[in-house]
Every structure is written in structure tokens, then in C-alpha cells.
Design a protein that fits this description.
It contains nine helices and 13 strands. It has about 325 residues and is an alpha/beta fold.
Length: about 325
């Protein structure tokens, strides 16, 4: 039996809702097939008040083994480092996190707020929010650069706004079955199995991307979303088009641009008007290009691609 405790800091509960919609495996599968015991979860836990405080203290004091601590939401440190703007079970949440992280065998940060600080950590960040081990791309966060769980690992980051449900459950299964050592982490402590490739990998619009055939409207099934609508699929590490949402679709397949929500810089451009769903360009060349491409090569490729674009690239090839 593997004990899992799920706590929530400054969050919208989006990752909880995502987690409860997991399919491969489902939350029920975690419990029935993989021996996971959910000690407490904000939406599933039965304990309240004094009973919940006793459970938390029993984990801290070693009476209840804490195998996996899952944290959702940013860590609020305001005001003045006290964390009292986010109280839970009669203490600042950051104090529970400090104590529980010291006894947990593994710590998993779920969602952008827990991994990098997310939207709460945007300037001017009045809540003094941060992620568990990063603040945006800067290492450290709340627990510090040197933090390691009892199993010897840093915080395992599963970013996203929200994170894909199956990313969450599959990592929990890997830990519960003793196979987490088979999963390599990247420089941001993300599991490479989900975050080594780009969102563009598996996108049904890749042929339109190659021919520089664009779309300027949401919901259309033809044209690439990168050239006009600010899609960040070519620059964002995620498996959203390989491990589909609800086993059916993704943002780009539904005709909406990727917002790059698995990267520490999300939300990009600080959500300034005119920057979110519009590609920023200089003399027609996007300011931000796919990883590894320079502007000179891009400009040359654009000329060749547009000249070679077949007529069908401008048509809706998915019409039934």
C-alpha cells in the first residue's frame, strides 16, 4: 500500500478536476489495481477539522508513512514571509508543506502554480507566490535548490494549466510500482516521457505548418495556428498531441492555439492585450521561432515553402 497525500495551495482546483477525469489509469484504478491509498485529498478526503489535523501531524511524526506528497497550487508566502494569506487546518499552508516535505518519500508538484508559481506569481506578485522548487525558470522556489525527498529525488514537476490527467496518474503508478527510476527528468525536473517532445509532435496541422499555410480564425480545421494566432506548439514541451485529452482531441486539433502552459514563462507576455492570440512579428518574421531555427533560415524556408504550396493545403481536408 502506497500512501498519497494531496494538498492544495493557491489554486483554482483545475488540476484536481483534471486528475479526477483521468482515464489511463483512472483514479479508481489507482486504488483498486495499483495499491494507492489516498490519505486525504481536497475533493475526496473525509476528515475535517481536528481529525484532519491529527492525520497531518501523524504523517509528520512518522505514525503514518507518507510515500507521496502531491501539491497543487502555488506556495503563498505573504505577508512578510508568514504565509498567513493561505491558512489551512489552523496553520499557514507553507508550514504544513515544510514539515511534510521532510518526511515524504516523493514530492510531486502538479500544475503550473505548484511547479513554477504560475499565474499567482505574475508581477507584481502581491501574494509572494512561488513554485515548490522553481520560480518561473529560476531554480530554488520554496523548498530550495538542494531539496531532496527521502527517496533522494528533487520535486517531480508535472506542469500544465491544467496538467493532463494521465500524466499525473501514470507518474503516481510509476512511483507506486517502483519504476520511477526508469523515468528520466529534464533540467526542469519534468518527466521526459511526457515533456521531451514538442506539442507540435502529432499535430494534425503539421502539413500546413510545413507549407506556411495559415489560418486567422479560431475553430477552423485547416491552416496552421502558428503564423497568425500565436500558437506556441513548436516551442512548447508537452505530449498533448500524442496523449490526447479525453482520448479524443487537443487544443490545436480543436482549432485553438497552444498557449505554452507547460513552460515556466506561462502566461507569456504577462497577458498584455494583443499578445495572447496574435503572433508577434518583425517584418513578417515571428519574433519567436521554433526551437533550433534561426531567422535567416526561416525566411529562406518561407519563400520556398510558399512557392511549393499545393492547392489542397488551403482546403479543409477534414470535411465529411
Amino acid at each position: 500500500m502506497v500512501n498519497v497525500l494531496w494538498l492544495q495551495g493557491a489554486a483554482c482546483s483545475g488540476n484536481t478536476m483534471s486528475f479526477l477525469n483521468a482515464e489511463e489509469p483512472t483514479v479508481c484504478d489507482l486504488i483498486a489495481d495499483f495499491g494507492i491509498n489516498v490519505l486525504w485529498h481536497p475533493s475526496l478526503g473525509l476528515e475535517l477539522g481536528a481529525n484532519l489535523q491529527k492525520l497531518l501531524w501523524d504523517c509528520i511524526n512518522g505514525k503514518i508513512p507518507l510515500d507521496i506528497l502531491v501539491f497543487e497550487g502555488s506556495v503563498v508566502q505573504a505577508p512578510n514571509g508568514t504565509g498567513t494569506w493561505n491558512r489551512f487546518a489552523d496553520r499557514p499552508m507553507k508550514d504544513w508543506l515544510t514539515d511534510l516535505s521532510q518526511v515524504a518519500s516523493f514530492v510531486v508538484a502538479v500544475g503550473d502554480c505548484a511547479t513554477w508559481g504560475g499565474i499567482p506569481a505574475m508581477e507584481p506578485n502581491p501574494s509572494d507566490s512561488t513554485g515548490l522548487q522553481f520560480l518561473k525558470r529560476k531554480e530554488g522556489g520554496f523548498l530550495g535548490t538542494e531539496y531532496r525527498s527521502k527517496a533522494g529525488l528533487p520535486v517531480i514537476n508535472i506542469p500544465g494549466c491544467p496538467a493532463h490527467p494521465d500524466w499525473i496518474t501514470q507518474i503516481l503508478v510509476a512511483i507506486a510500482t517502483g519504476r520511477i527510476s526508469d523515468i528520466a527528468l529534464d533540467e526542469l525536473n519534468r518527466p521526459q516521457t511526457f515533456f521531451k517532445s514538442f506539442t507540435q509532435t502529432g499535430c494534425t496541422r503539421n502539413v500546413h505548418f510545413a507549407y506556411k499555410a495559415s489560418t486567422a480564425e479560431f475553430g477552423q480545421r485547416k491552416g496552421c495556428l502558428f503564423y497568425d494566432l500565436g500558437c506556441r506548439g513548436p516551442m512548447t514541451h508537452s505530449s498533448c498531441n500524442r496523449i490526447l485529452w479525453n482520448r479524443v482531441s487537443s487544443k490545436t486539433r480543436a482549432g485553438m492555439p497552444c498557449l505554452g502552459c507547460t513552460e515556466p514563462e506561462f502566461p507569456f507576455h504577462d497577458l498584455k492585450p494583443g499578445t495572447v492570440f496574435k503572433t508577434q512579428t518583425v517584418l513578417g518574421v515571428p519574433k519567436e521561432l521554433p526551437v533550433g531555427m534561426n531567422k535567416k533560415d526561416y525566411a529562406l524556408l518561407t519563400i520556398v515553402a510558399k512557392d511549393a504550396t499545393p492547392k489542397w493545403a488551403e482546403e479543409d481536408i477534414f470535411t465529411v
